[in-house]
């Protein structure tokens, strides 16, 4: 990890508390990407004790906020909107970056920060609902990145494997909304087979039945991004399920030594580089 | 005025939950509804205005994209409608978060008695369904009458205006808290009161208790406090503290052991001291990585210079047997509080599970409270929600099916945490209470939960009596508390911390006050869920999600400030003293005043007769089976057996990636679908060190000898670790015993003496094997009385005792995770090795069980011989000489060669003639013997010389190779015994539970 004057570092706010639970690895991922990460309790954002102005990146992390008993991310969104809604809009308006992962994605869509059509960051027009399989599911998925999307976080990535772990990740919206998301290249990543072709709804390649295999979307500016898979959980090459096989292959010279696992850190690096 | 909001998915959307219920109704009962839609009901008892109601409806409870909602009953057509809601006093987690959300959105505070209650109704279409069908779905799938109420409506019975009505399951006790005195005028009187109050006092303890309260000095001191005869607070406290659950009387007992064959007799005074404490103390001196054992809530081992890991295991059998989901979620969430309450507190990094249940497809005459299938569904979901919602990965677990668990299921839950070696510049593993420290209770509130355990289950329910004996864990409340307490720890605010489990405050305060030498507790300050609890109930309640913390008075305001920020309730409930007294007050009046040392002196040890009848004397013998001919078919059958086949459906429901630490996952291989021997985590994200974890359960061998059951279980748990790269020099162990009743009774427990002897033998094996392997026991627990009385066909009952069971968990620290290895064969041409000798050890094997035999030759572990080979294998793994390593476990070599091939999606050819065997064995014996101490290893042929030279001191052989053609080919004396496509093996292995998600 490059060190240096931390004052010059891009600062990332990792939102915690109320049952959110990916704080440690998300902060670690931000740090690996070169940011200075700080875990901040939702109540410290609301009280203003920690001002959003101190940060360039805000991460809505995974977990079960308020137990997710009334729809995943719903209460977190209600609470943030009521108590810090204006500040959030200002944060985005100031050119900063927001990423929502899993429960964070669910929160962003319930806040209306996504899809953010026409600069409207208040309307709920898409939803993440119960997986078609009817259960929570932990698996690794292939994601095909739309090369024409404006998303800051996925620049230079065509294909990435990441773990999914959710019970409510099925992306749905009215046909017109889906069509518009596609047209505006706001569909950032789609569940795919290993070759990169779309999953076309097939379980378990598409783990939840998402319409159009949608795994993540961004706003029209590309600065607000939400996705169900967990880039922060792929923070080390050895998180990847195939690493023991790849290691053997590489020892035998059967694949190039430079076989790179494109880890989820890349997504955070893109965010940091955006400010440099 | 209360209002009822109904919420449902828009009719055009797929209802996954309804579809799941529909499938189960059809799979389990042959009831085939056309469709099921789920309606969630939120009943708000808070006098909200119409505007306020509309605000919460739209802002909180209705997703505009997916849902519709109405304060009038939603109009979904049905043939049958089933409403399911909680009974009063059952934890309604969604109700509680709804209150938080409503308060926040409206900027109001709920008043006393106001609340939100959630329930559901299920609209079932299907004209062919009878009322009986609907009731079956209600009672066997949707609700458990212990915790839930049910109403079933046909279309004609439904009032479209009122719907289910307004149902408010509020607890109303209408009771003034009262301290009652208990008469101790004779042993008989106290014994009678013990029976009446369900105290379960041991008859031998009764005179000790009476004598204490009759001592003149004690009487005088009590008189000065305004006390005479003991109060119910005191007697309940003593009863809790002396219970087998809290005091481990069985393991502390004196055993008169006799071998009925040799006549040899011996007395073992205290199983715990002899077989657990003493070997662990010895090993602690040899192993400098053992940081803290045998006193705290969990054991502590060193991970690296700056970090320690913490581990313990528990069971939650009886509650799970009554209410599978509630019991299991309470179990896993409960065991997480042990590391949280170890030292000054640990962050949770993983959990694991072990489920032992009856046959999933049981269709016999016995009528268990919950069918094993339903029970398994429930415990799986309980651990799922408990782990996932806590943000703690659940990467390992096992399921064992056996008829004996019909009497009572077993639910093992294990928790691992991490602590820094230093917390606020003090050793993090140490803690103590000092006079003047304040006693704080953090987390949940106190209700009539868990009081007297499940004995309360026979009480008759009324509309407003709390059904508190079976609880539902609340991971959300606990996660908030976990985050809060770790921050408090890091700020140096915590002097002592322990959890509230069995015995509640009586246990946590009672035990922590031993350090300071006394305490004064103000029970009236304890926050309650509802008014009307008696003082003794507050003192012994087992309400969940609570920790007891000692805080210096100077730190209390900061502690409470942090607590408030994290939305955690913390309350000062007393003070530690050095008075030598446990002093409890309520509204200023003393209601208990007991010498702190009373419980540690003078109570008689429990005593057990143990009679060992060796298996031969019991008539066990080897079966006479001629050699099979169709090995391919046999092997497939073996793979499809319930105790061997794939349980991917369970593993995938559990988040095993959260915290981003996963290195070796629970499912590995080309298609990531075959079970790994163990899991490896990278708990310190900035480090390349790993923590390996595994477990084993082999209760079957207890049918022959619990000594070998224990030794083989430990060996398997060790081998599992070594297989992924665990270091045999650092193996920590956790023993969890689950045993049927061992107290002999000529009528009720005629084989009690034998079961006692099995326990003695198991404990001896634990000691012998751990000493031989060098495994200090970091933690352990015992759960006795794993028996049940099940009704039969004619109203008669049958006692069923579980197999004598011990789950063993192991940990190891891996210095470089890059050296870890998985069990899948990886490259065609790699050489296939078997390490370790195969012996004629099929007693109680899966193979014999296939044909209904037990046999006699139970597998026998030889840890002194095995360990050097394990160390050599570790060296080979660290030198990266092994491409795959897999232990040979239940089912033997045949089954596990298949596992390696299935994981790699490649072929394996094996020549049985080459297998190292102590004697000349028949092919089926070679393939299915369960001799411990063996591994299957594949090696790149370039590494052949180096690998083989390492092992020259050990029994090993190259028996074949990995092949490109994906088939398992087994030969004997030049002839092909089996030749099966790997894909066929895999589909057979996956088939039994393959349609479950």
Strands of the widest sheet of chain A, in order across it, are: 2-1-3-4-11-10-9-6-7
Which word captures the global form of chain A? globular
Rg of chain A: 18 Å
Strand count, sense and closure of the main sheet of chain A?
A: 9 strands, mixed
CATH architecture of the domain at 821-997 in chain B: Alpha-Beta Complex
Task: Please state the CA-atom Rg of chain B, rounded to the nearest Å.
Answer: 29 Å
Q: Mean of the pLDDT scores of chain A?
A: 94
Instruction: Report the uncertain regions of chain B.
Output: 454-462
* Biggest interface: A-B, 69 and 74 residues
Name the CATH superfamily assignment of the domain at 821-997 in chain B: PurM-like C-terminal domain
Mean pLDDT of chain B: 95
CATH superfamily of chain A: Class I glutamine amidotransferase (GATase) domain
Number of domains of chain A: 1
CATH-defined topology of the domain at 821-997 in chain B: Phosphoribosyl-aminoimidazole Synthetase, Chain A, domain 2
The run of helices and strands of chain A is: EHEHEHEHEEEEHEEEHH
Helix/strand structural class of chain B: alpha+beta
Fraction of residues in H or I helices of chain A? 25-40%
Oligomer: heterodimer
CATH T-level fold name of chain A: Rossmann fold
């Amino acid at each position: 990890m490059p060190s240096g004057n931390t004052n010059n570092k891009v600062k990332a706010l990792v939102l915690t508390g109320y049952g959110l639970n990916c704080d440690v690895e998300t902060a670690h991922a931000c740090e690996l990407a070169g940011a200075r990460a700080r875990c901040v309790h939702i109540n410290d954002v609301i009280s203003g004790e920690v001002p959003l102005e101190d940060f360039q990146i805000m991460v809505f992390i995974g977990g079960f906020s308020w137990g997710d008993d009334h729809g995943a991310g719903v209460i977190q969104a209600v609470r943030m909107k009521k108590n810090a809604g204006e500040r959030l809009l200002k944060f985005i308006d100031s050119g900063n970056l927001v990423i929502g992962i899993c429960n964070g994605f669910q929160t962003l869509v319930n806040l209306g920060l996504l899809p953010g059509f026409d600069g409207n960051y208040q309307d709920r027009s898409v939803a993440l609902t119960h997986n078609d399989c009817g259960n929570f599911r932990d698996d690794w998925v292939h994601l095909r990145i739309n090369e024409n999307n404006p998303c800051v976080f996925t620049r230079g990535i065509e294909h990435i494997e990441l773990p999914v772990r959710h019970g409510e990740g099925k992306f749905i919206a009215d046909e017109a909304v889906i069509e518009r998301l596609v047209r505006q290249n706001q569909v950032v990543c789609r569940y795919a087979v290993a070759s990169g072709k779309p999953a076309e709804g097939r379980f378990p390649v598409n783990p939840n039945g998402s319409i159009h295999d949608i795994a993540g979307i961004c706003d029209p500016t590309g600065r607000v991004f939400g996705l169900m898979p967990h880039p922060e959980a792929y923070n080390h090459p050895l998180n990847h399920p195939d690493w023991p096989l790849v290691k053997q292959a590489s020892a035998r010279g059967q694949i190039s030594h430079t076989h790179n696992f494109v880890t989820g850190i890349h997504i955070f690096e893109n965010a940091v580089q955006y400010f440099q | 005025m209360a209002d009822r909001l109904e919420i449902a998915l828009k009719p055009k959307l797929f209802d996954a939950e309804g579809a799941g219920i529909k499938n189960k109704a059809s799979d389990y009962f042959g009831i085939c509804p056309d469709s099921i839609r789920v309606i969630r009901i939120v009943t708000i008892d808070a006098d909200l205005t119409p505007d306020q109601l509309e605000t919460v409806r739209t802002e909180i409870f209705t997703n505009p994209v997916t849902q519709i909602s109405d304060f009038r009953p939603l109009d979904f057509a049905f043939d049958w409608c089933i409403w399911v809601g909680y009974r009063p006093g059952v934890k309604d987690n969604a109700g509680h978060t709804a209150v938080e959300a409503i308060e926040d959105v409206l900027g109001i505070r709920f008043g006393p008695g106001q609340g939100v209650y959630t329930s559901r109704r299920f609209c079932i279409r299907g004209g062919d369904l009878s009322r009986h069908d609907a009731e079956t779905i209600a009672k066997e799938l949707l609700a458990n009458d212990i915790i839930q109420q049910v109403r079933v409506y046909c279309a004609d019975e439904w009032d479209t205006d009122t719907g289910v009505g307004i149902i408010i399951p509020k607890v109303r006790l209408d009771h003034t808290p009262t301290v009652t005195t208990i008469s101790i005028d004779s042993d008989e009187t106290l014994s009678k009161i013990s029976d009446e109050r369900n105290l379960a006092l041991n008859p031998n303890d009764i005179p000790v208790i009476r004598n204490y309260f009759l001592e003149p000095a004690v009487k005088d001191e009590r008189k000065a406090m305004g006390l005479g005869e003991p109060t119910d607070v005191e007697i309940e406290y003593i009863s809790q503290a002396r219970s087998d659950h809290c005091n481990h009387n069985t393991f502390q007992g004196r055993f008169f052991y006799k071998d009925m064959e040799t006549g040899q007799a011996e007395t073992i005074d205290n199983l715990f001291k002899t077989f657990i404490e003493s070997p662990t103390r010895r090993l602690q001196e040899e192993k400098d990585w053992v940081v803290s054992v045998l006193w705290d809530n969990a054991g502590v081992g060193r991970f690296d210079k700056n970090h320690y890991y913490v581990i313990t295991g528990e069971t939650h059998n009886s509650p799970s047997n009554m209410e599978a989901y509630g019991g299991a979620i309470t179990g896993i969430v409960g065991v997480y509080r042990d590391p949280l309450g170890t030292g000054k507190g640990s962050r949770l990094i993983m959990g694991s599970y072990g489920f032992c249940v009856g046959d999933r497809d049981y269709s016999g005459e016995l009528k268990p409270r919950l069918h094993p299938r339903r029970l398994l569904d429930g415990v799986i979901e309980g651990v799922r929600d408990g782990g996932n919602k806590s943000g703690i990965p659940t990467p390992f677990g096992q399921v064992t099916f056996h008829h004996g668990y019909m009497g009572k299921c077993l639910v093992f839950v294990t928790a691992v945490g991490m602590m820094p070696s230093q917390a606020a510049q003090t050793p993090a593993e140490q803690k103590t209470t000092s006079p003047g420290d304040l006693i704080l209770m953090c987390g949940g509130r106190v209700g009539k939960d868990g009081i007297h355990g499940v004995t309360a289950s026979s009480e008759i329910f009324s509309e407003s009596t709390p059904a508190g004996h079976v609880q539902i864990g609340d991971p959300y409340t606990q996660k908030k508390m976990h985050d809060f307490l770790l921050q408090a720890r890091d700020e140096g605010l915590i002097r002592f911390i322990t959890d509230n489990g069995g015995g509640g405050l009586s246990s946590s305060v009672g035990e922590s006050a031993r350090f300071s030498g006394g305490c004064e507790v103000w029970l009236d300050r304890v926050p309650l869920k509802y008014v009307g609890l008696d003082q003794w109930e507050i003192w012994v309640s087992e309400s969940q999600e609570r920790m007891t913390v000692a805080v210096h008075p100077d730190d209390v305001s900061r502690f409470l400030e942090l607590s408030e920020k994290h939305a955690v309730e913390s309350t000062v409930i007393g003070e530690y003293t050095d008075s030598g007294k446990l002093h409890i007050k309520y509204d200023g009046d003393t209601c208990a005043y007991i010498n702190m040392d009373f419980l540690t002196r003078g109570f008689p040890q429990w005593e057990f007769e143990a009679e060992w009848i060796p298996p031969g004397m019991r008539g066990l013998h080897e079966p006479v089976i001629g050699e099979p001919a169709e090995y391919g078919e046999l092997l497939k059958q073996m793979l499809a057996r319930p105790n061997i086949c794939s349980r991917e459906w369970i593993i995938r429901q559990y988040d095993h990636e959260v915290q981003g630490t996963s290195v070796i996952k629970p499912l590995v291989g080309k298609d990531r679908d075959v079970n790994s021997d163990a899991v490896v985590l990278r708990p310190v994200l900035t480090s390349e060190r790993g923590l390996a974890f595994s477990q084993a359960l082999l209760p079957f061998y207890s049918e022959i000898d619990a000594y070998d059951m224990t030794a083989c279980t430990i060996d398997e748990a060790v081998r599992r670790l070594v297989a992924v790269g665990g270091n045999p020099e650092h193996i920590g162990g956790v023993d969890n015993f689950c045993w049927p009743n061992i107290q002999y009774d000529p009528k009720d427990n005629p084989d009690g003496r034998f079961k006692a002897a099995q326990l003695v033998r198991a404990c001896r094996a634990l000691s012998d094997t751990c000493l031989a392997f060098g495994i200090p026991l970091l933690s352990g627990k015992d759960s006795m009385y794993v028996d049940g009385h099940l009704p039969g066909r004619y109203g008669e009952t049958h006692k069923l005792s579980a197999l004598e069971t011990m789950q063993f968990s192991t940990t190891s620290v891996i210095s470089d995770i890059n050296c870890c290895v998985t069990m899948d064969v990886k490259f065609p041409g790699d050489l296939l090795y078997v390490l370790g000798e195969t012996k004629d050890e099929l007693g109680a094997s899966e193979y014999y069980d296939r044909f209904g035999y037990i046999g006699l030759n139970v597998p026998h572990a030889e840890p002194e011989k095995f360990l050097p080979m394990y160390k050599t294998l570790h060296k080979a793994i660290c030198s990266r000489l092994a491409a795959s390593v897999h232990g040979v476990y239940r089912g033997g070599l045949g089954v596990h060669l298949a596992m390696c091939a299935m994981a790699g999606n490649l072929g394996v050819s094996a020549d049985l003639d080459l297998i190292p065997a102590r004697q000349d064995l028949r092919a089926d014996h070679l393939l299915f013997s369960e001799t411990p101490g063996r591994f299957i290893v594949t090696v790149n042929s370039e590494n052949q010389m180096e690998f083989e030279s390492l092992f020259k001191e050990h029994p090993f052989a190259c028996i074949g190779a990995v092949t490109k053609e994906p088939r398992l080919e087994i030969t004997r004396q030049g002839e092909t015994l089996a030749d099966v496509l790997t894909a066929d093996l895999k589909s057979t292995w996956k088939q039994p539970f393959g349609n479950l998600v």
